[in-house]
Amino acid sequence: MPHSSVHPTLPDALPDFARDPFAWLRSQAALAPVQRFRFGSLHGFMVGDPGVIIEVLRDIETFAKGPYAGQQGLGLMLGDGPVTSDGARWRGVRRILQPEWTAARAASAPSRFAPVLDDWCAGWDARADSGAPFDLLDDTRRWILRAVLREFLDDETCGGFEDLVEVVTRAEDGMGPAWLYLMANLSPAHVDRFRQGWTDGRARLDRVLYAIIDAQAASASTMVGRLLAGPALAEVEPLEPRRLLRDLIATIVLAGTGTTASALYWVLYLLALHPAASQRLRDELAADPPSAWSDVIDRNRYPWLDACVQETLRLYPSVWFFDRLTTRPTTLAGVDIPDGAVVLLSNYALHRQPTWFPSPDAFQPERFLAAPPVRGSYLPFGFGPRYCMGAPYALQEIAMASAAFVTRFDIDMGSGDPTPQLAATGGARPRKPVAATLRRRAGA
User: Fold this and answer.
1) What is the CA radius of gyration of the chain?
2) CATH code for the domain in which residue 400 is found
3) Are 149 and 155 a contacting pair, CB within 8 Å?
4) What would the pLDDT profile of 112-125 be if each residue is shown by its tens digit?
5) Residues β-bridged to residue 382
């Protein structure tokens, strides 16, 4: 972990951050464009101004991946793939994926998600018939994982599916930023014991991923087979190309599943708690019925659906925290930042600032029907060269599933809280799970 000697008299903010990182990030982001802080022996800078955040995210040479986003944090499970790597390695990884990650492929993805969604709706029909409560977040995680496996690995029911579900769940629940910064102030023995749990989880993940690689290695019709047959993997990782492929797949599976599932959960949760918004969505779809669920990805044709999704991502961005590490001295908003300093950014905190979004805690999709947000104030998928590659896929799946479910079902979240407490995990998920029940709508 990096250590800086600046401002040793600053109060230690780590207890407040560990207790409620969301509240701490919001409070710091509102103080100044750039605010100094201290987490135990670690010193850094919190950035809360949209323009300065854009400056940091755009300059990937000065602001490299921080401890949480890099190898000491997410890298424990994801390896050295597109989310966690930096510099020449990151550029090489992006080159590997670009032939597989084309605009044409993204445009055709809804047709491949449609059969998964049909099966998902059939499963919900059975849930509605039984009337039994179920864990909505777990349900979205399982079905989005199937969609990710189908889209990128041509195998939505791989032999290790249940292992993948558990590993994805544990990774999302355990990879919160607070533990990483707490570890910076723990003894090596405590850190080793903590890391052992991730070592065990990674071993289970590796067994499943390497089995997929072995099964598809000779098939030119799969992404795995094409990448192994081409030169790009060996050019970036000449000694262990299969390990690099494992890291790429791990990133797609874990990051692609957790973020999309979390976002879809919150869309359905908020629509269930706001029946007027749900009815307006049904009216929009009824006024211009889609011939297939893939039609609803047209934002101009279904603006209220898009506004509901965008407002949900404002309130609950799936990735709500970024950290960076300076590679050289620099200046932000007139504040001198030394080499090796941690810089924190939070789109969650940014999205909840009343300066940019009046009544910031309220679910108000109509705000996205008016003027677009101030540049840099709305960043659900990041910004700049490291903008999320999976954003088009996520937005399509979220729109299609939301439209299908709201049309066919009434979702009852029971005692759901309009402003629920959040767990400080790898994704913005509820601290206390809320059971959902379904009722099939008449004529659906």
Assistant:
1) 22
2) 1.10.630.10
3) yes
4) 999 999 999 999 99
5) none
**Is residue 6 in a domain?**
no
Length of the chain as a residue count = 444
CA distance 234 to 232: 6
**In a domain? residue 9:** no
Question: What pLDDT does residue 4 have?
Answer: 45
- Write out the DSSP string of 344-389: EE-HHHHHT-TTTSSSTTS--GGGGGSSPPPTTS--TT--GGG--T
Report DSSP state, residue 98: G
Query: How far is residue 211's CA from residue 208's CA, in Å, rounded to a whole number?
Result: 5
Residue 7 in domain: no
Dihedral angle sign, alpha carbons of residues 158, 162, 164, 169: positive
Output the pLDDT for position 174: 58
Phi, psi (5° rounding) for residue 39?
-110, 95
Encoded amino acid at 421, one letter:
Q
For 22-38, letters b (16+ CB in 10 Å) and e give bebbbbbbeeebbbbbb
The range of the structural domain enclosing residue 55 comes to 14-440
**Total domains present in the chain:** 1
Q: Is residue 82 in a domain?
A: yes
In 82-166, DSSP assigns E strands to 134-135
